[in-house]
Amino acid sequence: MSTKLNILVPVKRVIDFAIKPRINKAGSGIEKAGVKFSINPFCDIAVEESIRIRETNKSFVDKIHAVSIGPSKAQDILRSSLAKGIDSATLVDAKEEEIEPLAVAKVLKKIVESKGSNLVILGKQAIDDDSNHTGQMLAGLLNWPQVTNAAKVTVNGSGDSVTSVTVVREIDGGEETLEAELPLIITADLRLNEPRFASLPNIMKAKKKPLEKLSLEKDFGELDLKQRLKVLKVEEPKEREAGVKVKNVDELIAKLKDLKAI
To answer: Which regions of the chain are under pLDDT 70?
Structure first.
C-alpha cells in the first residue's frame, strides 16, 4: 500500500510585516483600525514549501489543504494561498476574537483528523504575538514527532510511496539533520525558502477552488477554548540614549567606569 502526503498548512492573518505597529490609546494592544493586513511571513514560507514539495515529488503528494482560524477577512490570505498552488482551504471563523496557541492547536487537531492529514507544515511563529507555540502544542496533542525551525526539507521514498522526511534545522554553531517517518509536524524558519508571487491568471483560477467555511463557536463548541492568558499592558520600549564615540581604549574604559558598567 502506497503512502502519499496529505499536507495541511495552517496560515494566519497578521498586520503586514512592512508596517510599524502602533499601540492603541488604551495601551491594551496594537492599533488595528485602518491598518494593512497580510499573511504571516512564516506561514507564507510554509505555503511555499508545501508547493515545492509537490513540484519536486509529484508522485508523493496527494493533496495540500490550507486552514486559517480568524476573522472572515482571513479569506484573503487563503485565496492568495490557493492562487499560489494550494488545492483547497478551510476558514474557521472566529469573528474578531483573539485565539491563543493552545486553542489553535486544539482546533487544528480536529481538522487534521477530519482531513486525514499526515504532514503539517506551519510557520514557526506569528509576527504579532511571537509565541512560537502552536506547532509544538499540536504535535503534543496528536502525539506526533516534530521538527521545528526547518531550514531544508527533503521527502524520501520510492515509486509513489513516502518512507520518511529529512529536515535540516539551524542551531547555534551549525546545523542539525533529523529524519522522521510520517505522520509529522514541521515548523518553517525564515531561510527555508523565498515565497513566490501569485500570477494574475492563478488569482482568477483560485476563485473557483473550494473554500470551506466553519464556525469556531458552532463547529468546535465542544472544545475547551477559554482564554488562559491576559494582557495587562502594552507599551513602547524606552528610547535608547544616543551613543558617543571614543578616541581610544583608555577613553572607552573611563567612560564605562563613569557609567559603573565595569
So the answer is: 1-2, 96
